Amino acid sequence: MMCSDKLRVHVKNNHASPETFPPTKEGEAVFTITDARFQAACDKYPDIARQIEVLIDWDLDRFSESMQSADVLVTWDLPTHDLARVAPNLQWIHIIGAGVEHLCPMNWLPDGVTVVNNRGPHAAKGGEFGLMSILMLHSRLPAIINNQKMAAWSSLFSGSIVDQTVVIIGIGHIGATIARRCKMLEMNVIGISRHGRPVSGIDSVCTSKDLDSVLPAADFVVLAAPLTVETRNLFDCRRQALTKPGAGIVNIGRAATMDYRALVENL
């Protein structure tokens, strides 16, 4: 029986499905909040653990019943219709992803309910993926793999990545982590942010107004920006044309921040 003086938390995991997230069984194993993972978090933050009661659920199995008394919902998605009636005590919705655009527009959100994203936890993996992608492009791994498929055993060479320049568009948790990984390899790092303020571990930080002037120097461009009105189509055909021939492009942010049709034409 749940204690009335504790916060009721409902965790809605999703079984893998192309219509939702995660779309694959592999992704399901990565993103599921299991009992063991929850217990590990409780062990790490015992003061918080003592204040909550948690129901870990799948899809909509016990959603309607549990939401009648839930204060907090942890999920990727949810049925939004008539949420004030379905979840009269709900105060907080924690989305497990970095983006929430799949829930927009949020005209369904009841008054007094706050929606937050998973800001920060994806930084370590994002940093690993960003650096891996840069190294793959620098070492010409896509061309090597293509040669293997074509049984073309021609030599491909690349020099050291030291002193190569990477422009990182968006230096939040993920972008800043990629920057630190790149600095470990003695790369030159230029960050693009809304504020343009200096960030530890980044050689220089500019605003988007300066993006056109720094792109020609980039050996690699990394997009790590959220999707907003300002960032939609930010790396468009004109800006792609400003990059030097052979520059590597990595988009670890939202797809719509780059014009992919223009990218195909520019390639």
Describe this structure in words.
GO terms for molecular function: NAD binding; oxidoreductase activity. InterPro entries: D-isomer_DH_NAD-bd (IPR006140), NAD(P)-bd_dom_sf (IPR036291). The protein has 267 residues and is an alpha/beta fold. The protein has two domains: 7-116, 3-Layer(aba) Sandwich (Rossmann fold); 123-266, 3-Layer(aba) Sandwich (Rossmann fold), CATH 3.40.50. Helix content is 31%, strand content 17%. It has eleven helices and ten strands. The protein has a five-stranded parallel sheet. It has a five-stranded parallel sheet with strand order 8-7-6-9-10, with helices on one face. Helix 10 (237-242) links the parallel strand 9 (220-223) and strand 10. The N and C termini lie far apart (61 Å).
Shape: elongated
- How many helical stretches? 11
User: Largest sheet at a glance?
Assistant: 5 strands, parallel
Report the radius of gyration as a whole number of Å: 22 Å
SS-derived structural category: alpha/beta
What's the helical proportion of residues? 25-40%
CATH class of the largest domain: Alpha Beta
Number of strands: 10
Strand-helix topology:
Layout: E1 7-13, H1 25-31, H2 35-44, H3 46-49, E2 52-58, H4 63-67, E3 72-75, H5 83-86, E4 92-95, E5 114-116, H6 123-138, H7 141-149, E6 165-169, H8 173-184, E7 188-192, E8 204-206, H9 211-214, E9 220-223, H10 237-242, E10 248-251, H11 260-266
Parallel strand pairs: 1-2, 1-3, 3-4, 4-5, 6-7, 6-9, 7-8, 9-10
Helix pairs in contact: 6-8
